[in-house]
Design goal:
By secondary structure, this protein is mainly alpha-helical. The chain is built from three helices and two strands. A hairpin with a 2-residue loop joins strand 1 and strand 2 (46-47).
């Protein structure tokens, strides 16, 4: 192929067509025998008691999101800390700026009260 973008275009077409084809085939070939028992909510082998749809506090999601963000940042900081001795001054300054941005984010989340477990 002469054009490198043609490979990207073909890859994108295949990436779209294959999952859509699989979903269509599952819809056409899959069994269609719904029953009230099959439509019941099932969780961990225990029948649900009461309402199946429960509203959770948004604070739990904010807490989990803050945790995930800071854990991902640790993944970015680990190679930097590993090679700290061989890094030039500018790279050290960038790492310190990155940690400062994280600290400001943590301070913001803390001041908003998102880390208070209620």
């Amino acid at each position: 192929m002469d054009n490198a973008w043609a490979v990207v275009g073909i890859f994108m077409i295949v990436a779209i067509v294959l999952p859509v084809a699989a979903l269509i085939m599952a819809r056409l070939l899959g069994p269609k025998k719904p029953s009230p028992i099959k439509q019941q909510t099932y969780e961990c082998g225990v029948e649900t008691v009461g309402e199946s749809w429960v509203q959770f506090k948004a604070q739990y999601y904010v807490y989990a999101l803050a945790f995930v963000v800071f854990e991902v940042e640790v993944v970015f900081l680990f190679p930097w800390a590993r090679a700290y001795g061989q890094l030039p001054f500018f790279a050290t300054l960038e790492g310190a700026l990155f940690i400062l941005i994280l600290a400001v984010g943590l301070l913001y989340v803390w001041r908003k009260g998102a880390l208070e477990w209620q």
